Amino acid sequence: KKVMMLTKAVLDDPVIRSRLEGVGVLTREQAIAYSVTGPTARPSGVDIDVRRDDPHCAYDRVPWDVIVFNEGDVLAKTKARLFEMMESTKIIRACLKDLPEGPIETRVDEVPPGEGIGRTEAPRGEVFHYIRSDGTNRPLRHKVRAPSFMNIASNVVAVKGGSIADAALTLAAVDPCY
Questions:
Q1: How far apart are CA 150 and CA 126, in angstroms?
Q2: pLDDT of res. 81
Q3: How far apart are CA 47 and CA 32, in angstroms?
Q4: Is the Cβ–Cβ distance between 49 and 83 less than 8 Å?
Q5: In angstroms, rounded to a whole number, what is the distance separating the alpha carbons of residues 36 and 26?
Q6: pLDDT value at position 110?
Q7: Structure confidence at residue 9 as a pLDDT band (50, 70, 90)
Q8: What is the C-alpha separation between 65 and 85, in angstroms, rounded?
Q9: Which of 36, 38, 56, 93 has its CA 20 to 30 A from that of 64?
Q10: Is the CB of residue 94 less than 8 Å from the CB of residue 6?
């Protein structure tokens, strides 16, 4: 209820709309060229989501929608995040409804030597992990490519033509984690 109330308050406020609409536009072509992910890509019309495109866990067993807009501005990024909160609630409720009985934790007693990769959809977009093991309980190498690494670079084009105040909003809409 509170998320719906916040969404309605933001979307119905003419001051917020006038401040965010048309600011920091990242076109679909620019989003693809900069390889942005998650809620930086989807508001620019790029229909990608690791949970749908490479399903894992229970994402392919519960109903949910990928939120995509085409405007590419800060308002579209704001709407995407608001609607994605509702989708997250939908996913959580569906998982709890169908949660099977039994242990919810996997015990790992031995780690075999080798290497692996994995990716998932984090709140800011696709997060990628690479890990190498020598068979001990400590990794030899663990490399993370966080979504902010991909998304921040798009500000080079998204801030062009705007004011300094617009640049701050445009960067904040990407929700960088340094």
A1: 9
A2: 96
A3: 11
A4: no
A5: 10
A6: 86
A7: very high
A8: 11
A9: 36
A10: no
